[in-house]
Design goal:
The structure holds 3 protein chains of 3 kinds. Chain A is an all-alpha fold. The longest helix of chain A is centred in the first third of the chain and has 33 residues. Chain B folds into 3 domains: 26 residues; 97 residues, no CATH class; 221 residues, MetI-like (MetI-like fold, Orthogonal Bundle), CATH 1.10.3720.10. Helix content of chain B is 72%, strand content 2%. Chain B has a two-stranded antiparallel ribbon with strand order 1-2. The longest helix of chain B has 35 residues. The mean pLDDT of chain B is 88. Chain C folds into 2 domains: 168 residues, Periplasmic binding protein-like II (D-Maltodextrin-Binding Protein, domain 2), CATH 3.40.190.10; 160 residues, Periplasmic binding protein-like II (D-Maltodextrin-Binding Protein, domain 2, 3-Layer(aba) Sandwich). In chain C, helix 2 links the parallel strand 1 and strand 2. In chain C, helix 2 packs antiparallel against helix 13, helix 4 crosses helix 15 and helix 7 crosses helix 9. Classes of the chains: A mainly alpha, B mainly alpha, C alpha/beta. Chains in contact: A-B, A-C, B-C. At the A-B interface, helix 1, helix 4, helix 5, helix 6 and helix 7 of A face helix 1, helix 10, helix 11, helix 12 and helix 14 of B.
Chain lengths: 271, 396, 367
């Protein structure tokens, strides 16, 4: 499809752009195996000397008390927030997709707004709010806050998958005697499930990535992986951070692949 | 039937709406409250302040006011609230902290009427109008002072609004800088993102999917991971400098400074936000049939003209969405500038965090947050008007 | 096909949660306290010097957190009633303010352990700045240090040299705060160390300090955590940097970094152990503070890092650096040869002027 002039120039430019996008992330991975506490490729590494590589930073991350409890916290907060966001978000998306829904535009705007308001404002507001309720430094406050950030993703993905949903199926189910709950779980949910799962994954990723609210409201008990990385970067940057980062990249790729498989056009069952 | 469907739809949307109202809108509301409402001084010295209403603002107040102030300071000391009173007044006028604290301590030991002599004996500051004016200023429960400060203004001793002295003006410059930096980042993202989106949208399907993954990998990767990468790459002993030295472009002693300054902020933030530009543009471009361009060119238009008149207008919705998204995200960014921005790369959000976490001037933090919020809200409404929020899309 | 995919995904999510949740979070035996310190080599030194012995002797576990000074977290915890920090290692100004605001418990020196020879604690501690809520801990100093390899011939020797970009070109590291920088600027500008705060109490003195800072401003890399300067110096990010003396000592002694401290114009300050008001573990916290500020603990710390003890009885015990056998006395900030031109930090001045100086410093940075 050669419709642009200087296609080679365009390709070259885009090649550089893709390099800019991906290379920085890839650079981290080999460096996390550095035997030295440095962030550069030592001569030994470049000569592929096995002694220049080591797993010591992975040992630190996997067996270190701090990182382990951080991983646990990330999991607890991430799963709980994603679950809450998914349930509430899916219900709301079903409501918004109904042709009978009044005030759809303003309501959508409201439900999506946590995604658009800069995180520093949201976090500041939550800090004031939860400190007046004496809830800072609690899991409850963090899970609720992360759920708010995740819910818009669920609303968006589920609404999108509802766009391809034939409502007559529900009427058909009803005419065959199915109750609303039955027809939801047996008819509607299987069809929109790719949207629900993608939304849940987005919500989980949003929580896993969140650090500003953590910084304002989290205590030492609730430290998550990104919070641990933050203090690592600010204080003593050690390649252990790169090892943790490599794990996070793996998680990101897993999430990405899952969502892509779910959203791949043509495989989505519709009607 | 329709009514029932309507009720059903509303009921479905209700839980999340309520949830967002309580855990998102209410917090923003409490931030707004914080920015205007500051009852601290009024709660600690209610009677003194009531008595000060009689005072004309010049000269010294009456003996009765002195007596009330002495009594309420003593009470505040017993209840351990005097420290907060001192901190609040000190924020208004430097040096008030030690005046208040020392007076509190001295009052515990001794002191008798006439208070209008005892208090100035304890500390001469009580013999001047300044401290009483400061009490009146900070005594208002609803105060515009945080908004004024957020706009580099303050109140003078007569209560008039004046500009801050020059060596204390900071937020005006900072808001302008934040907007400028966000604009530069938006333009950088657009310049890189538009051609990339074009290539992805008009490549064969297999190729297109592969390229899209290259955009989505950074999109899904944790922000902290990406920021760390840039530190690793750009620092003095980092990968890029090492490479330049090895190749011989740069001498070892003159390694480039690319981090802890504006360069670091710009590069890292462009990287972080680029996918938010590419994805909306791509999703719009995908819907533009390539045949149109070919048709225009076969009718005699050269490439630039065909592009300008046929393709570009159709891709504008995507460009608008991408630009607004990137701009809004950039304007509120905190983590990346804090870690790679150094001194010159700090933006308004860093100061909001600073006032929450370090200086503890929560009122000012809230006012800065509200000002930023209004700016974003305006953009948000613009976005909705031009493109429609309900058409927002994620990923492919 | 799709259902399979979904269930696989859910299973994976479930198993990973289960796996993670079976990992023991912490050795949370019955009793533990959270002790907050300044991180990096200082925290490591405290752990070796007395945390470990404390745990061994009392069976009380210690959870270590770190911070970069300031009262924000303490205040948030006290005001919301969720006190999770028990003992904090604090600088004088914060301890003073925190005490005033009722955020910290008062310390009764009568309850601190006496010296080995029986001298009561009230007399054993050095007669330095008293904070009602702090148990005197150590004397530390903000100094500047340089990377030896960067100056093969002439070496920086005075505070003025730090500000002399012509004689000693290269980037400087400084703390992103007005503290110490204002004092350094005046000393470098020729103000006698004893008159620094007198001058800073005048508008003219402050302006003079900022003018001096102006001369190096665009060569400065700002740091926030005490662990950063040694790293920046070692990485070659800067050629000289202000820093806490103990951090530089450790980078030099333990990691063989070619760093040299310039003591001229150093800012001497004191550190305190404080207890956060309203901690549910008040008794354990008191026990820890008494242990941490005992003669032995303070003396022991000097075997790991070069911070001076604030007890007479501990000073007598100062000996050698444990790992390298370096004689510690000359490296302490309060050693006679190091204090000839030292500024003694004035916590009162800072408590009164911190807010205003922060504002002016921030405005100056943005300019």
């Amino acid at each position: 499809m050669r419709i642009s002039p200087g296609s080679t120039a365009l390709r070259l430019f885009c090649g550089l752009a893709f390099l800019f996008l991906v290379a920085p992330i890839l650079v981290i991975i080999p460096l996390s195996f550095n035997a030295e506490p440095y962030f550069t490729f030592t001569t030994g590494m470049l000569e592929l000397d096995p002694d220049a590589y080591s797993l010591r930073w992975y040992e630190q991350v996997i067996f270190g008390e701090q990182w382990r409890s951080a991983a646990l916290n990330s999991a607890i907060i991430g799963f709980s927030a994603a679950a809450l966001a998914t349930v509430l978000g899916t219900l709301a998306a079903l409501g918004l997709s109904s042709p009978a829904m009044p005030w759809r535009r303003p309501l959508t705007a409201l439900l999506i707004s946590p995604l658009i308001v800069p995180i520093v404002i949201t976090a500041a507001g939550m800090f004031f709010f939860y400190s007046s309720l004496n809830l800072t430094q609690t899991y409850t406050a963090l899970i609720l806050s992360h759920a708010v950030l995740g819910a818009p993703f669920v609303v968006i993905t589920v609404t999108a998958s509802m766009a391809g949903f034939n409502r007559e199926l529900l009427l058909a189910a009803a005419s065959l005697g199915a109750g609303p709950a039955y027809s939801f779980f047996r008819v509607q949910l299987p069809i929109i499930s790719p949207g629900v799962i993608s939304g849940a994954l987005f919500a989980f990723a949003a929580s896993l990535d969140e650090v500003v609210i953590m910084l304002f409201m989290g205590g030492i008990e609730q430290r998550t992986i990104p919070r641990e990385m933050w203090s690592g970067i600010r204080e003593e940057i050690s390649p252990a951070i790169l090892a943790a980062a490599t794990f996070l990249i793996l998680v990101a790729v897993l999430l990405l692949v899952t969502v892509e498989l779910l959203q791949r056009p043509g495989k989505k069952p519709s009607n | 039937m329709l009514n029932k469907a309507r009720t059903g739809a509303i009921l479905l949307a209700l839980p999340l709406t309520a949830f967002i109202l309580v855990t998102f809108v209410a917090p923003l509301g409490s931030m707004f409250m914080r920015s205007l409402y500051d009852p601290l001084v009024a709660d600690i010295m209610p009677e003194t302040l009531a008595a000060l209403e009689e005072w004309d603002g010049t000269g010294l107040p009456a003996e009765q006011v002195y007596a009330l102030a002495a009594r309420e300071l003593g009470l505040a000391r017993e209840e351990k609230t005097i420290g907060r009173l001192a901190t609040r007044l000190n924020r208004d006028t430097s040096g008030m902290r030690s005046v208040i604290m020392r007076s509190g301590r001295a009052l515990k030991r001794a002191g008798d009427a006439p208070w209008s002599e005892t208090l100035p004996d304890i500390n001469p500051a009580w013999g001047e109008a300044d401290i009483w004016q400061a009490l009146v200023r900070t005594g208002a429960r609803v105060t515009p002072i945080y908004y004024l400060n957020a706009l580099d203004l303050t109140l003078d001793s007569d209560g008039g609004v004046v500009r801050q002295p020059e060596d204390r003006r900071i937020y005006g410059t900072l808001f302008i800088k934040t907007i400028r930096v966000s604009l530069v980042i938006t333009l950088l993202c657009l310049a890189i993102g538009y051609p990339v989106a074009w290539l992805i949208a008009h490549s064969p399907p297999r190729m297109s999917r592969m390229l899209l993954v290259l955009v989505l990998v950074p999109f899904w990767t944790s922000l902290l991971v990406r920021t760390t990468s840039w530190i690793v790459l750009l620092q003095q002993q980092g990968v890029v400098n090492d490479l330049l030295v090895r190749v011989g472009i740069v001498a070892d002693e003159q390694r480039l400074t690319m981090i802890h300054n504006m360069t670091g902020t710009l590069v890292a933030m462009t990287h972080v936000l680029l996918p938010f530009m590419i994805l909306p543009i791509y999703s719009v471009m995908r819907g533009i049939p390539a045949v149109q361009m070919q048709a225009a060119m076969s009718l005699g238009a050269n490439w630039p003209r065909a592009f300008r008149q046929v393709y570009l207008p159709q891709s504008l919705p995507g460009v608008g969405a991408g630009c607004l998204l990137v701009f809004i995200l950039a304007i509120g960014y905190y983590i990346t500038p804090a870690l790679v921005g150094g001194q010159s790369g700090q933006l308004i959000s860093n100061f909001i965090a600073y006032h929450i976490q370090t200086s503890l001037n929560w009122g000012l933090a809230a006012a800065l947050g509200c000002v930023l919020f209004v700016a974003v809200l305006l953009l948000f409404l613009l976005y909705d008007r031009v493109l429609g929020l309900d058409r927002m899309r994620l990923g492919a | 096909m799709k259902t399979i995919k979904t269930s696989v995904l859910l299973c994976a999510a479930w198993t990973s949660t289960m796996m993670l949740s079976t990992v023991p979070v912490n050795a949370q035996e019955d009793q533990f306290i959270t002790v907050v310190s300044w991180g990096g080599s200082y925290a490591r030194s405290s752990v070796k010097a007395y945390h470990e012995r404390f745990v061994e002797e009392t069976g009380i576990q210690i959870k270590l957190d770190e911070y970069n000074g300031g009262l924000a977290q303490v205040r948030a915890q006290v005001e919301t009633g969720n006190v999770s920090w028990d003992v904090v290692d604090m600088e004088a100004g914060d301890a003073l303010l925190g005490c005033d605001e009722g955020l910290l418990e008062t310390v009764d020196y009568e309850t601190l352990p006496p010296a080995p020879d029986g001298t009561p604690a009230t007399q054993d501690f050095l007669d330095v700045y008293d904070v009602e809520c702090g148990a005197k801990n150590l004397v530390y100093s903000t100094v500047y240090a340089y990377n030896d390899t960067r100056f093969p011939e002439q070496k920086p020797a005075t505070m003025a040299d730090f500000f002399d970009l012509e004689k000693f070109p290269g980037r400087r590291g400084m703390r992103r705060a007005p503290n110490a920088n204002l004092e350094f600027a005046l000393v470098a500008d020729g103000v006698p160390s004893a008159r620094v705060y007198e001058l800073l109490s005048t508008e003219e003195g402050i302006a003079r300090a900022f003018r001096k800072l102006d001369t190096v401003k665009n060569q400065v890399v700002w740091w926030e955590a005490g662990a950063q300067p040694p790293q920046m110096l070692a990485d070659g990010e800067v050629v000289m940097s202000t820093a806490y003396n103990g951090r530089i000592f450790n980078a030099w002694a333990l990691e063989n970094q070619p760093l040299t401290i310039v003591w001229d114009g150093q800012l001497l300050a004191f550190g305190y152990q404080v207890i956060v008001a309203g901690t549910p573990k008040l008794e354990l916290a008191r026990q820890f503070v008494a242990f941490a500020t005992s003669t032995e603990s303070l003396a022991n710390l000097t075997r790991y890092i070069s911070y001076g003890p604030l007890r007479h009885s501990s000073l007598a015990l100062v000996d050698k650096h444990l790992e390298t056998g370096i004689d510690m006395e000359p490296h302490l900030p309060n050693a006679p040869q190091n204090i000839s031109n030292a500024v003694l930090e004035d916590p009162e001045w800072w408590a009164d002027n911190q807010d205003e100086m922060n504002e002016r410093f921030a405005a100056w940075l943005v300019k």
